[in-house]
Amino acid sequence: MVELADMQLFVQAVRSGSLSAAGRAIGYSPAVASKRLSRMEEALKVRLLHRTSRRLTLTEEGEIYYERCAQILADVAEAGAEITAGSLQARGHLKVTATVALGRRKIGPVVAQFAIDHPGVSVHLSLTDAVVDLVAGGFDVAVRIGELQDSRLISRKLADDRRVICGAPAYFARHGRPQVPADLLQHRCLILSRSGQAAADWAFVDQAQPFSLRVNGALAADTGDQIHDWALAGLGLQRRTYWDVADDLASGRLEEVLAPYSPADVGIHLVYASRRHLPAKTRLLMDALTRAFATQP
């Protein structure tokens, strides 16, 4: 089988009129260049060049082969240029997954703006609180909260996250503020429950010692968005990750309580399968998400 490097030597020799000069241009000695050309002719079972001490002349078969080789090398060069351009310009399809609440409030707007800024990219955003298999699901990147469990994956930290107990100013005006976690037993708690139970164990830390407190709910729902809506309406206190409520805390629509008792921070990470040859579309989206989280303390 003829190697691409031998085709390059042959075409260069025809164009320069000298096998030795063609070899030097590619990095072969005259002896190696001559040996490689002979090997190519043996593989093809034809003579490609008439060689004298002064000039090279194409045989009839050599003329046909030269035209095909020149076209093949041009196609290879064009393909390489297209791939290189693709590594600098975002194009193609991106598949992204994130948790539901964080995805709607933070990831979704970034993805939408990214699609506007990079019209050559289409993005599918899958929102689920389940941990999906990136490789099996064909996802380019995921946004996950907590520790990375799959050692096959690479992660980039976006921000710290923590659990927040918060409520609306109207709620605190009616019911007062809890000062210690045990006070929650006298408050209206909003319970995120997929089991149908209107009770939950909320985690806290006191003097570096973790503990949990079972709170009962006046209202319970199986979606975080419904819990959030009830909290904004002043109907009770919710326990959410900071980034789910960051904008509401900043605007004053919600206020945090019991902050000294919050458990240790966990990380929000970008997770992807490999850092080798990462496409531009993936790199640029990851950079956009990193900037978005960096704008808030």
Per-chain topology:
Layout: H1 4-16, H2 19-26, H3 30-44, E1 49-51, E2 56-58, H4 60-88, E3 92-98, H5 100-117, E4 121-127, H6 134-137, E5 141-145, E6 154-161, E7 163-167, H7 169-175, E8 189-192, E9 199-206, E10 209-221, H8 224-232, E11 238-241, H9 242-251, E12 255-257, E13 266-272, H10 280-294
Parallel strand pairs: 3-4, 3-5, 8-10
Antiparallel strand pairs: 1-2, 5-13, 6-13, 7-11, 7-12, 9-10
Helix pairs in contact: 1-2, 1-3, 1-4, 2-3, 5-10
Account of the 3D structure:
There is one protein chain. The chain has 297 residues and is an alpha/beta fold. 43% of the residues lie in helices and 26% in strands. A 5-stranded mixed sheet has the order 4-3-5-13-6, with helices on one face. Helix 1 (4-16) packs across helix 2 (19-26), helix 1 crosses helix 3 and helix 1 (4-16) crosses helix 4 (60-88). The longest helix has 29 residues, at 60-88. It is rod-shaped. The model has no long low-confidence stretch (mean pLDDT 87).
What are the main properties of this structure?
alpha/beta; single chain; 297 residues; 43% helix; five-stranded mixed sheet
| Neighbour order of strands in the largest sheet | 4-3-5-13-6
Low-pLDDT windows of residues: none
Mean residue pLDDT? 87
Radius of gyration, CA atoms, in whole angstroms: 32 Å
The helix-strand sequence is HHHEEHEHEHEEEHEEEHEHEEH
Shape: rod-shaped
* Structural class label: alpha/beta
User: How many β-strands, per DSSP?
Assistant: 13
* SS strand fraction: 25-35%
- Roughly how many Å apart are the termini? 61 Å
Q: Please bin the fraction of helical residues.
A: 40-55%
Number of helices: 10
Largest β-sheet summary: 5 strands, mixed
